[in-house]
Amino acid sequence: MNNIYLSIAIVIAAVSVIALIRTNQLRKKDLKVLKEIKKAKEALSKSVLYHGKSDIPNYMFFMQRLLKVERKFSRFHVSLIKLGKTPVFDSIEGNLDSLSELFRDISKSCQPYALALHDSDFLVMAFVTHDTDSNQQEAQAKQLDILEKLPKQVWVNNTQVPIDYAISSMSLTGQSSLYGIDKVQRRLTFSMKYALEAENGAFVHNEKLYQAEMYRKHVLLKLMNSISFNPDDFYLVFQPIFKTSNLDSPRRYEALVRWRNTKNLGPKMFMPMIQDKPELQSELTKIVVNQVYSMLKIKLEAREKLKPIHLNISVSMLENEQLLDYLKKVIRDTPSIAAFITFELTEGNEFNLSDNAHNTLRKMSNLGFSFAIDDFGKSSADPSILNSKYFNSVKIDKAYISDVQSKSDQAPKLEAIVQIAKENKKTVIVEGVENRHQYEYIKRFPNIYIQGYYASVPLTMNEFLSNEAA
How far apart are CA 191 and CA 208, in angstroms? Predict the structure, then answer.
């Protein structure tokens, strides 16, 4: 019996030893697995929160750091810093040592709450306080303090080079409407273009300016959609042009484009939006040309008398022959209509015609089109442009008649321009005649044309057709 108990005890002991050995083996294996998991998590964290294998925090790290702050009773001063107004580093990978040293120097000198390298061109920096009051002056002072502390030299490719900075900043609190660091980033990026233009390289975010730009982009998107896909969104009104001797019967008209839009925006708002977009300008001009041509063709087929129609184009549209090619297609069936279309070239700040532009003018003139200089006198363009045989008429900018508001007012600059235009045998049209005193002043000059609200407001298409059919 005792032998049986002894055998059982030996078996139990053996099993216990085996279990203990197995447990230790499993424990070591688990520890190994845990270490591997921890190592993987650290590697993952490194790849997510830092630039590659470096110790330089990235924007994700910056966001995590800020989101840990209790916003309700805190104030943030957040800055986007451009590392050199002109690029200094071409990449992060190729400049890790230089960027690491620069990052450490900035972190030490400025001591921000959060700092990260956004990319090879930009740093993001934030300071946090529990004082929720802030103003523009304090934000500007903080910017200048940061700029003062930033390193003035940096090592690049084993060469020490000077570095300048541009900084855009904004202050916000927990009560601010700007929740979400992504919104802050968009605003700082927007403000950076103003910082780059500023003499001291600093700009504090202006929310009204930002919202105005976002609104402009929103409108521009809708405008682009109308031009590209819905040309019927645009329609024409016609402003009569009279000889001063007869305000009852217009001699010619200017076609002015209008846009059907929910905001009821006029051309003074939407036309400047496409000034730096030649493709949109070209497409909108084609829409206007097509509507003018279609209207004149209908009148011609009805055997009605045609009068010249003016419409605007920019000088840049003459640089290539796209407009010329389009016009050839439009008037192919009725080429005689070209004689009743006058293109007004906007003088703007610069009115320089290249050889290509002159060549296009010549070819368009051969098709029968006429040309006028719009807003003449608005800039310091060479008066010799009036010698060009391609320009039949000159529109004097309305600024020259605006000084005449009473019987005693004089406009010597206007008189000088009229005299120069007359000497060059150009038809003279004075824009912006808004009252009787201005009209009476212009009447002193023989064979002058006027355009403005005193003579007539712009007419709708139906009013124009009825007026001409009468």
Answer: 12
What does the pLDDT average to over 128-142? 80
CA–CA distance, 63 with 66 (Å, rounded to integer): 5
Cβ neighbours, 10 Å, residue 462:
8
* Per-residue model confidence (pLDDT) at position 85: 86
Question: What percentage of the chain has pLDDT greater than the value 90?
Answer: 51
Please report the pLDDT score of residue 430 as a whole number: 94
Of the pLDDT bands very low, low, confident and very high (cuts 50, 70, 90), residue 218 is very high
Using pLDDT thresholds of 50, 70 and 90, give the confidence band for residue 377. Answer: confident
* Percent of the chain whose predicted confidence (pLDDT) is above 70: 85
Q: Are 203 and 195 in contact (CB under 8 A)?
A: yes
Can you read off the two tokens belonging to residue 45? 């964290």
pLDDT band at 28 (very low <50, low <70, confident <90, very high): low
What pTM did the predictor assign? 0.76
CB 328, CB 286: distance < 8 Å: no
CB of 442 closer than 8 Å to CB of 241: no
Q: What angle do CA 90, 91, 93 make, to 5 degrees?
A: 145
3-state secondary structure (DSSP) of residue 77: strand
pLDDT score, position 276: 86
For residue 162, give Cα distances in angstroms to 165, 241, 453.
10, 61, 59
- Cα separation, 308 vs 242, whole angstroms: 12
Q: CB–CB of 223/274 below 8 Å?
A: yes
Element (H, E) at 391: strand 391-396
Q: How many CB atoms lie within 10 A of CB 400?
A: 22
DSSP 244-264: TTBSSS-SEEEEEEEE--TT-
CA-to-CA distance for 128 and 107, rounded, in angstroms? 15
Alpha-carbon gap, residue 112 to 96, rounded angstroms: 21
What residues pair up with 122 in beta bridges, in sequence order?
A: 82
CA 130/CA 72 separation, integer angstroms: 9
Which token pair is 221? 């998107």
391-395, long-range: CB within 8 Å, 24+ apart, which pairs? 391/426, 392/342, 392/426, 392/427, 393/342, 393/426, 393/427, 393/428, 393/429, 394/421, 394/426, 394/427, 394/428, 394/429, 395/344, 395/429, 395/430, 395/431, 395/451
Residue 417 is predicted with a pLDDT of: 86
Report the candidate in 63, 288, 272 with the shortest Cα–Cα distance to residue 185: 63
Give the pLDDT of residue 179. 55
Q: Which residues contact 81 (CB under 8 A, 6 or more apart)?
A: 122, 123, 124, 125, 146, 150, 165, 166, 167
CB 435 within 8 A of CB 454: yes
In a 3-state reduction of DSSP, which class is residue 40? helix
